Amino acid sequence: MPSSLGPPRVGIVGVGNIGGAMVARLRSCGFTVAVHDIDPEAEARAVALGAMACATPAGLAMSCDVLIVAVVDGPQTESVLFGHHGAAAALAPGSLVMLCPTISPGDVERFTARLDALGLEWMDAPTSGGPIRVREGHTSLMLACAADVQVRHRALLSVLSSRVMYVGERAGDGARTKLVNNLLATINLAGTAEVLALAERLGLDMARTLEVIDQSSGQNWIGSERMKRLLRGDTQARARTALLAKDSGLALDAARSVGFGVPLGGQAAALFALACAQGLADEDDASLLTWMRQARGG
Predict the structure, then answer these.
(1) Which helix (H) or strand (E) holds 176?
(2) How many Cα atoms are found within 13 Å in the side-chain-facing hemisphere of 53?
(3) Using CA atoms, how far apart are residues 139 and 91, in angstroms rounded to an integer?
(4) Is 178 labeled as catalytic in the residue annotation?
(5) What is d(CA 167, CA 173) in angstroms, rounded to the nearest whole number?
(6) Which residues, 6+ apart, have CB-to-CB distance to 159 below 8 Å?
């Protein structure tokens, strides 16, 4: 059974940008954290923060009360939970599983049904805002779970995020909310890249133009944050183009599943898919601006 004395023991599978930032946040707040990642360097960074590395998800599950899954997609999530040496069967009944990746609502429904059958609690809990906000405890957390589960784990949630937004009890509603958000982010980022490339072609300074946009009606957080970094020469891949292409593709699938047309979203998603095909998949998603400038003769 989960420990009832002191803060819960937390395990995190997937300690890249977001999972690694969660380790930093939890360790800074005094939590015991165990980790597993297929990337030895990511694991080593987590261990340097005071986490304990485990060889398998199952091994990690045996040493935690709360399992946070912070991998990339649905297949990875399924493997972590239910694959060879999967965590779900090794967790004590009553333990909590937090599903934080951006995955399809259908995957969330399937996974949570299997967790229910094992007597485990779950949260459909994708995040938004990037690793800096996660480390500071200010990430946006879109939460779907049973109301009593939220209440029971309120202390942990408050450490992870000052912006916990409860969207209901239905499995998959956290994922649905995240996909709607990310589709809008895709539109905003593509639009910001396009207008800055246009500004340059019109003979304007892109950095100054972005400053004006930030104080005007065209301002949007993701366009501003990403492009400011790019324009000052910071091209480190904090959020890969392939991830936003994947997320927007999932959002289009969700729209199709209810027969709803999203022409703007479709155009933006197609643009990111094309950028990936042109070699930008592993670049920061702000590199869309560089690609637009080159593709259009800038």
Answers:
(1) helix 173-201
(2) 16
(3) 27
(4) yes
(5) 7
(6) 25, 26, 29, 31, 137
CA atoms of 203 and 206, how far apart (whole Å): 9
Burial 191-225 (b: 16+ CB within 10 A, else e): bbbbbbbebbeeeeebeebbeebeeeebebebbbb
Of residues 9, 36, 153, 178, which has the active-site annotation? 178
CATH topology of domain 176-295: N-(1-d-carboxylethyl)-l-norvaline Dehydrogenase; domain 2 (1.10.1040)
Encode pLDDT of 85-130 as tens digits: 999 999 999 999 999 999 999 999 999 999 999 999 999 999 998 8
pLDDT digit string, tens, across residues 158-167: 999 999 999 9
Q: Does the pTM exceed 0.90?
A: yes
Specify the CATH number for 10-170; select among 3.10.20.90, 3.40.50.720, 3.40.50.620, 3.40.50.970. 3.40.50.720
| Residue corresponding to tokens 């209440």 | 151
DSSP letter string over 47-59?
A: HHTT-EE-SSHHH
Helices (H) and strands (E) in the chain, counts: 14, 9
